[in-house]
Specification:
Blueprint lengths: L1 H4 L3 H11 L5 E3 H8 L3 H13 L3 E6 L2 E6 L6 H12 L1 H11 L5 E5 L10 E7 L5 H15 L2 E7 L7 E5 L6
Parallel strand pairs: 5-6
Antiparallel strand pairs: 1-3, 2-3, 4-5, 4-7
């Protein structure tokens, strides 16, 4: 869907990298290695996204580091679009539907680090979660989001990864 609007695969991968998690940063050579792309292709797209104001540039020693510009007026919209592109909104909705007392839904692994590997790792935190529902849910979610989804269950809240949902304390 998004790849039909944004025809540059490099630009799309950069948007995923920087907008799936605002903590993600990168520099040209590192991104070129990570994406297995030429430095020229990465430079061109980083310049385009920076000039448009979507990315911030920061000189650090002898290299330039990039990250999402959270102050850009379209930041929230772009982050929502990236989450929808990856299917994260669908996953959270389905998980909360009938999983039980869900305290957190956390994106971990490659996507949390901004790498579009095709495998989405999700940790669901809560007491007495509905594992039978989860075994039925996984194939349905994979069909919807067109990516492999791996669920891990935990009974302890964590700070690792990107929190997609967190139940407010004192509710429920």
């Amino acid at each position: 869907m998004l790849d039909s609007i944004i025809t540059s695969k490099t630009r799309l991968r950069l948007l995923v990298k920087f907008f799936v998690n605002t903590a993600n940063r990168g520099h040209m050579r590192g991104l070129a290695e990570e994406f297995n792309e030429s430095t020229n292709a990465i430079r061109k797209e980083l310049n385009n996204l920076s000039e448009a104001g979507y990315l911030e540039k920061k000189a650090e020693r002898n290299r330039v580091s990039y990250r999402a510009n959270v102050k850009h007026p379209l930041f929230g919209n772009l982050q929502d679009i990236v989450h929808k592109y990856l299917g994260l909104d669908t996953i959270v909705t389905k998980v909360l539907d009938r999983m039980g007392d869900v305290r957190q839904v956390i994106l971990t692994g490659d996507y949390a680090e901004g790498r579009d590997s095709g495998i989405i790792n999700i940790t669901i935190v809560g007491p007495e979660l509905n594992t039978a529902y989860l075994s039925q849910l996984a194939p349905k979610v994979e069909e919807l989001v067109k990516r492999e989804v791996r669920f891990t269950l935990s009974d302890r809240k964590t700070d690792a990864g990107l929190v997609l949902y967190e139940k407010e304390e004192g509710i429920g």
